[in-house]
Specification:
Elements (H helix, E strand, L loop, with lengths): L5 E5 L6 H12 L5 E4 L6 H4 L4 E6 L2 E15 L5 E7 L4 E7 L6 E4 L20 H9 L4
Parallel strand pairs: 1-3
Antiparallel strand pairs: 1-7, 2-5, 3-4, 4-5, 4-6
Length: about 140
């Protein structure tokens, strides 16, 4: 059993991994990108012990970024949020369908998609539409 846990999050406003990488490069350059979220993980120690943030694009997990820190991020409204500090490297993963949800969810390492080999941006398996249909009927 792994001694860490991952997070999974919808990549709102992005249709493909390149949208995420372009946005992060424009906003953060070579610095660590940050994703600010309302809730602080109760399992923070496990998240910081090797966890990654898996990104869902249009109903399918396609990439992940290693989580390197969690920081307090005070908002203009006076509410303190959680800034998830990410490794700048975006790692492509096998496509894994995921139904819509709000916020983020924990993702057990045994249920996480495998990384694609370096340099490979897609897998030659099933089309996204078919993966999504399989997920909807509970077969993947």
């Amino acid at each position: 059993m792994a001694d860490y846990v991952n997070l999974v999050k919808l990549c709102v406003g992005a249709e493909k991994v390149e949208d995420l990488t372009s946005w992060q490069a424009a906003r953060y350059g070579k610095a660590n990108p940050v994703h600010v979220t309302r809730m602080w993980p109760k399992r923070a120690e496990e998240v910081l012990n090797g966890g990654s943030l898996y990104w869902v694009f249009k109903g399918v997990i396609l990439a992940r970024q290693r989580i390197v820190g969690l920081e307090e991020s005070p908002g203009a409204d006076g509410i303190t949020r959680c800034a998830i500090v990410l490794d700048p490297e975006v790692v492509r993963t096998e496509a894994m369908p995921r139904r819509p949800f709000q916020g983020w969810r924990y993702l057990d390492p045994k249920d996480s998609p495998r990384d694609l080999p370096k340099g490979r941006t897609t897998e030659d398996a099933l089309p996204r539409e078919l993966l999504t249909a399989l997920a909807e009927i509970g077969l993947r």
